[in-house]
Amino acid sequence: MEGSAMPSSRTIVDFACPACGAGVKTQRVAATYVQCRECSTRRPFVRTDLINVTGCPGAGKTTAGRVLLRRLGPEFVVVDTDLVCQPTDNVDERTWNSFIECLLRLVVCIAHGGHRPVLVGYSTPWQWDDQPLRPFLGRIRHIALYCSDAELDRRLRQREWLDARERPGLLDLNRRFRTMPDVHRIDTTGASPDDVAAEIAALLGG
Ligand SMILES: [Zn+2]
Description:
globular; binds zinc ion
């Protein structure tokens, strides 16, 4: 290989304007392009919808996600967000917000690769809505898995690595998902992972 030049800092997607440097808030995002309000330069863009399968730990996300992965066609990319999350991402609200921003950027990249993104892992609708890059995504469909208190308690007790002191907070979180507005809720209490994955797949038309 000749030369040792570093690759350009440009990526396949520009959130800020590559022509004049105006920031992300100055960009108008349409379905197939982004236009800078400052200098009017247009660039091609793929504004994707996102399927976000969420819920409390123990609600059945990972198990359903594994089945979902086998059910969906190759146009979908299913990402288990626990696999890309580091302990340092969950230290406080600020680090968690930047983790969600990272996921948002990942989702945009998946869409530019010609695929439909599906995230499986804990997050809430407002954590997405608060993102400065939120206009770069289309519709986010949140699918919240939840179960009964007794069932969650049973599942959490099976996780021997989980500190028992975390259980009350997780039971509260599960209750929040059970009544959360603007999400499609799926009760996993008596449902098999196949049932749950089938319901999610039906929502995706896959
Ligand atoms: Zn510009």
